[in-house]
Amino acid sequence: MSPRAYRQSARANAVQDTERQIVDALNVLLEERWFDEITLDDIAAAAGTTRQTVIRRFGSKTGVLSAMAAMMDDAIRAQRWSTPPQSVADIVALLMDDYERTGDIIVRTLSQEARVPEFAAVLDRGRRGHREWIEDMFRAWLDKLDGQSRADRFAQLLAQTDVWIWHLLRRTQGHSAAQTHRLMTQAIERLLREDATN
Fold it and tell me: For residue 149, what are the CA distances in angstroms to 118, 133, 156, 180?
């Protein structure tokens, strides 16, 4: 690699590192405060950079939020589709791995949806991704149904795998991750058994 190419590569890596630090800073701040209470100066300070750098890289606070959502979406997709599941328990294990990492920030984001218009696009993206994942993971069961039966089962699977179910079991009721995995698996298996007996 020539000295010029090396410098360009190092500069590009430094830009990526700075952008990642800014996104990570917003992520940490959102765990403690509401989005509309966080300023660009707060994000810059948490990232160890300047307000001007945040604006230059992302344009606005909403730009940082969009980048954070895109990074989360990429990570969630990579993790959720990481291994082909062989059973309902495997599917729930993939979901649990995701929610154990991202569930709290997702719930906190959902809690702000009504007061922060910028969250609509972020959350819609997440909902679309979850629907795609349910369709893919449960295809073997769903394809045995048709019409309203399939639509009903899909809606029920969406509800049974929603982050609020995880939050209710883990945070509100205080179950361990293993207990939550068992309870969610049992509920979904019960749903799918109904199709096998009909």
Answer: 35, 19, 11, 27
